[in-house]
Design a protein that fits this description.
This protein has 579 residues and is mainly alpha-helical. It has 21 helices and seven strands. Strand 5 (471-478), helix 18 (484-499) and strand 6 form a beta-alpha-beta unit.
Length: 579
């Protein structure tokens, strides 16, 4: 099955030395980019700096080896930062490990069940809304370190609103030294890409930040002041598992799985456009699942495809999963050799790096464009997803966003379903088109357009028949779909018509509605002869039925007249005899 075949196996069939050199070069460059980002994202997630490196190494290797994309680079991403921080604060590292493993299992099952294409059914407004919301939460979460604020003992805010309140209440404790280091680091991150095309701005900012703290009289917190730095390799760890722990972890696991699927497949789509390729979405989901399980078991955090690192891989010549594998191996070397020096990185520099990450992911231009151009219902979903992500969390944002999007979609689709009667005119009506269809007055024609489903079934109630109507024609050429609720409404209509002696004829019923009607036994109720392929045939059938009914009425009248005459004659003789 090609959809579940790792892209690595396909790439190796035509692999050559020239491409190997390009992949190695790209892998090393991406590793240099990933190093400060992995550390920064780990700290934003409330875990130690080495956890970010472990994630990039383990998950990056597994996802590149098994993935459905030739160029995907995986690792910790900003989208998970606030989610992971909340899980760690409430359930500890063991709770995070179990949630990540469960998320990995969900992802593997999604891939095996070929759900890769279903991710596209999550509205763009929801993904834009929660992505922008996550960017805001990252910025709020880093204000403390950027300004060097000091919180009173016991103040450990978890939720975004709590963090913002703590920043406002303790802003008077601002550390000017920290602000200087943060501002310089932020300026370097903004300017560096215009000057140094090959060297990551985050690496330059880290080096300058370290030099400032080491050689200038600046009192600023560093990673080493807050965390214990280790250069040991990832080790296997299986947490204690219980039914209660698993039950509590399920909502978080679902959120991680959905977000990982969205982020990774979105990254794959972007990469496909850059290399003119095509990824295997189902295999990518399986790889993401396996990568997250491995990451959790070896001290890492949730991982997914990283668009920025993937784009850097492509721009530097990476074209096969070998580049992603080299990226992981390079990080192993960096971990063993350079990790002790990570303790010298100033926290304001980490905050500045995360500010740039948040800016790059916030999609503010897309957000503004949607507000200006999208329908009102989409704007409602966009703002709801954004606000709920900031005020509550991603779980609430996705759940309510999806429900709201579905309800608004149902409303929008119901408004597109119309039931219109043909207009009847007489000879005295001015400006009558000579090409109008001439029909007996007792034939009533209605044209239905749009899907007939539970949200639009009430439209059938608009069909009205007159006392003189003998045949009702329903033209359904513009009805693409029919569900059981609308089917029940049609059954009620036909039964009412039959009780009044009115024949119902259907014109041009499409494939899906016809299957529903046949399965429900509706065609037998109406009569197969009353289903016609087009309106001309339907009208002929209606006129034929009307003539038959007229003939029957005439015959009935003719048969009743002699009886009446005989009855009146007998009445006459009886009266005369009595008289």
């Amino acid at each position: 099955m090609n959809s579940l075949k790792p892209m690595l196996l396909t790439s190796l069939k035509s692999y050559n030395r020239s491409q190997f050199i390009k992949d190695v070069t790209a892998g090393i460059i991406v590793a240099i980019i990933a190093l400060p980002l992995s550390i920064a994202l780990a700290l934003a997630s409330g875990v130690g700096p080495e956890a970010g490196i472990f994630t990039a190494i383990v998950a990056g290797f597994v996802i590149s080896a098994l993935g459905g994309s030739s160029v995907q680079i995986a690792g910790p991403t900003a989208a998970f930062a606030t989610i992971v921080a909340g899980i760690v604060a409430k359930d500890g590292m063991d709770g995070l490990v179990i949630a990540t493993i469960l998320a990995g299992i969900f992802l593997v099952l999604m891939g095996l069940c070929h759900f890769g294409s279903l991710i596209k059914f999550i509205p763009f407004t929801i993904t834009t809304g929660f992505t922008s919301g996550i960017a805001v939460t990252i910025v709020i979460g880093q204000l403390k370190d950027f300004f060097g604020l000091t919180y009173p003992d016991g103040v450990k805010p978890i939720e975004t609103t709590e963090k913002f309140r703590a920043v406002v209440e303790n802003f008077s404790t601002i550390n000017i030294d920290a602000l200087i280091v943060g501002a310089v680091s932020l300026a370097v991150l903004i300017i560096a890409p215009y000057i140094f095309k090959r060297i990551p701005g985050s690496l330059i900012a880290v080096i300058i930040g370290i030099l400032m703290v080491q050689f200038l009289p600046l009192k600023v917190s560093t990673i080493g002041n807050l965390y214990t730095i280790s250069n040991s390799l990832p080790s296997f760890h299986l947490p204690a598992v219980s039914f209660e722990v698993v039950q509590n972890a399920l909502p978080n696991a679902f959120t991680i799985a959905v977000l990982a699927a969205i982020e990774s497949l979105l990254s794959c789509v972007v990469a496909d456009g850059m290399i003119n390729g095509k990824h295997r979405s189902d295999m990518e989901l399986v790889a993401q699942g396996a990568g997250n399980i491995a990451s959790a078991l070896f001290g890492g955090i949730p991982a997914t495809g990283a668009i920025a690192r993937t784009a850097a891989n492509i721009k530097n010549g990476g074209r096969t999963p070998i580049a992603g594998i080299v990226h992981s191996i390079t990080l192993v070397i960096v971990l063993v050799v350079l990790m002790p020096y990570a303790g010298m990185i100033p926290m304001p520099t980490i905050a500045a790096i995360l500010f740039i990450v948040a800016y790059n992911m916030c999609q503010w231009r897309t957000f503004v464009k949607l507000v200006k151009t999208a329908p009102k219902s989409d704007i409602i979903v966009l703002f709801a997803s954004f606000i709920l992500t900031v005020l509550f969390d991603l779980v609430v944002a996705i759940e309510i966003g999806m429900v709201l999007a579905c309800l608004l979609f149902i409303k929008r689709m119901s408004e597109e379903t119309h039931v219109n009667s043909w207009t009847y005119v007489d000879d005295d009506t001015p400006d009558v088109d000579e090409h109008l269809q001439k029909l007996p007055l007792q034939i009533r024609v209605y044209e239905i357009s749009g899907p007939l489903f539970f949200g639009a079934a009430s439209a059938i109630e608009h069909i009205v028949v007159k006392d003189f109507t003998t045949c009702l024609v329903l033209r359904m050429r513009s009805v693409p779909a029919l569900d059981s609720t609308a089917m029940n409404a049609l059954v009620d209509l036909v039964e009412v018509c039959e009780s009044k002696g009115i024949t119902v004829v259907f014109s041009h019923v499409n494939e899906q509605p016809m299957k529903v009607m046949e399965k429900a036994g509706f065609t037998e109720l109406v009569g197969k002869e009353n289903f016609q392929p087009n309106i001309s045939a339907a009208l002929k059938r209606a006129e034929y039925g009307a003539k038959d009914l007229g003939a029957m009425m005439a015959l009935l009248v003719l048969s009743v007249i002699p009886i009446i005459v005989f009855y009146l004659t007998c009445q006459k003789y009886i009266i005369e005899g009595v008289v």
